Structure formats: C-alpha cells, structure tokens
Amino acid sequence: MSLVVGALRSHKLPKIISFILGFYVEFFRCTPLIVQLFFVYYGMPTIGVKIDPVFASIVTMGLNSGAYMSENVRGSILSVDKGQYEAAKLLGFNSFQVNRYIVLPQAIRVAIPAFMNGFSTMIKETSMASVLPVIELTKLGNQIYAKTYHPFEIYISLGVLYFVMTYSMTFVARKLERKATKWQ
Description:
Layout: H1 2-9, H2 15-30, H3 33-43, H4 53-78, H5 82-90, H6 95-125, H7 137-148, H8 151-183
Helix pairs in contact: 1-4, 2-4, 3-4, 4-6, 5-6, 6-8, 7-8
C-alpha cells in the first residue's frame, strides 16, 4: 500500500484523489497510534462494525506504517533527477517504462534505509497493541510480572527480545544496502 500511495503522490493527480491520499497520510502521521487503535477497536462498534482485537491491531498498524512509508517512497521517487525522466523519454520509453526501469530501481536504493527503519519502528510499536485485549510481548511481560513480581528480569528480557528483532532488521538492511550498491 505504501508503494502505491507514495508513487501516486509523487505525480500530478486530480485534486480529489490528491486530497484523499493526502488526508490518509496526514491523518495517520498526525494522530497518535494509541488513539488510532482505540478508534478502530472501540469506535467502529459504535457504527455497527465489530472487529477482532488482533485484526484491529494489524489493520491500524498497517495503515499507520503505510502512511509513514508512503512518504519514504514519495521522497525517494522525487529524489531521482529530472534528467533521468527526460533521457528515458528521449530514448522512447513510455511513462510506465520510465517508472518501471529507470525511476523505481533508483528510488528503491534510496528508500531501503528508510524502509528498514520503518520496519524496526513497526516492530517496537507492536507494544502499543497491549492497550487492546491482545496478547503481545509487552502485555505478556506485564502478566508475568503480576504473577512473579520480578520486573527487572522480565523487562530486561523484553528489551532483549525487542533488540534482537530490531537488530535483525538492521542486519537485513545492511545486506540489502550492499546488494543495492552493486545494482548501480
């Protein structure tokens, strides 16, 4: 979703489509994730839409991270020099070919670090789902703490687990960045 929204927002669009996409991005970037989670899980039933807490968490976090990552995509596409577009047009490429073969490969190289940062952030933000009736790492840690009264060990363990997951993303990002530099 972030790829589509970011790519569309980097081009001139009809005003209504531009407004809708811009509203989506700005709404999710300018409101706290916890409010979004409450809105989807607790607010939607007031209009007759009952949502499972896990599904509500996945949808909300997907929309939230999609908004942030779409801006990464848009910025990456806009970072491609205009001369690249002009050269491709002179060579006879149509708009689809320009974007597919010239712009996106260059934009992806630029976007990799931001995407990996976004994925790391998303992993850490899953702890926000603990405000809903969802069992995730932070809520599980709180439940164990309530039974054992050993906060230091529990929260150090949670920190280590989050670190391992996030550092794994950093490791993958470095590998992808190295491969991307070979594509040039």
